[in-house]
């Protein structure tokens, strides 16, 4: 079950960054209904953070910069 490369504390920080970026991108706090409605945006944010199973970006500004031009927002 996992390689043990990332511990719980590190993963909590990753989740915090994902939530912060989603708040910025969606314009409000993410909720279950909002995330289902804007699933494409959620998938793009997670894709920017995790690339081919490896943690890639955990800086909020770097993630938002990587999102630009990835796909048209609906």
UniProtKB/TrEMBL annotation:
Q: Which organism is it from?
A: Edaphochlamys debaryana
Top-rank taxon, per record? Eukaryota
InterPro entries in the cross-refs: Longin-like_dom_sf
Name this protein carries in UniProt = Coatomer subunit zeta
